[in-house]
What we know:
By secondary structure, the chain is α+β, with helices and mostly antiparallel strands. Helices cover 40% and strands 22% of the residues. It has twelve helices and 14 strands. It has a five-stranded antiparallel β-sheet.
Amino acid sequence: xxxxxxxxxxxxxxxxxxxxxxxxxxxxxxxxxxxxxxxxxxxxxxxxxxxxxxxxxxxxxxxxxxxxxxxxxxxxxxxxxxxxxxxxxxxxxxxxxxxxxxxxxxxxxxxxxxxxxxxxxxxxxxxxxxxxxxxxxxxxxxxxxxxxxxxxxxxxxxxxxxxxxxxxxxxxxxxxxxxxxxxxxxxxxxxxxxxxxxxxxxxxxxxxxxxxxxxxxxxxxxxxxxxxxxxxxxxxxxxxxxxxxxxxxxxxxxxxxxxxxxxxxxxxxxxxxxxxxxxxxxxxxxxxxxxxxxxxxxxxxxxxxxxxxxxxxxxxxxxxxxxxxxxxxxxxxxxxxxxxxxxxxxxxxxxxxxxxxxxxxxxxxxxxxxxxxxxxxxxxxx
Length: 382
């Protein structure tokens, strides 16, 4: 990134919508400052030998090769606190190629895509018991990248293999017919997009064309299923928070060109892609989300307003008694946990008695908050 940052920054305005270009600039700044003095640091002093140690702060960006894996693990841990400890099914909903450019230019529509996938899932599962339609828990993760980093929008849906009925009974569901899901996916996606884009005549015309020309619906793949919520959370580590590309897939870089290894699922063949370094970075950075935009959404039993209320109901109604109940952690406890993970033992004398003497925030954060000082003195005993 450091070798070609200037060339990438100069190309952003012509290649991406303003909100995306702004988010990419922030992401590049984080990557360049990660693990440096400009990125901030925390200085410790050992109480036993008075030795001073400095730990540089990380950017915690999913696009950082050093921080992306940690962010994926964090996402899996957070998901485990949300998922019910029941069987889950994994499905993928693909957006047709004709709509991808529309979503590229307006990233706010990605939430609409996730909502359409969840509505199709909940509708299809509700038909398994028409007298008392069961309400499942749905976690929808929107991905915008394919294996070769092209703009390929699809939704990974993790849904409980069953739902809670209005009469308090847990209704198991084992059947997931792809044909039914494809038609419902087409119906809800086009319906919601038409509602969002009703003033855009070209978009409405395109939606009408897709409605008449896709006779069997849009592509939906029924993937693996998981025996409990913990195994489903392990899925999150792979799909929810991981970076678009891992370092091990970059098999060559000579300063000017990058060679990427990937598997083409259209013919199930291992292939390589060679690109100029700037083009590779632009292809990677196109998947940066605008500020404050999420890519993980919860519906049904997993809606924030529903989750806590239904944990006990699911445990009582089903054979899955060991439900995970999230325990709230205060901001003070989160800070202590984060600092304790930075350093647990003095490398000089082996003592665990140390305290924080100085914390310096990233330079960008200090520019935005001029009222705050760059450094602060703490005496936090660990």
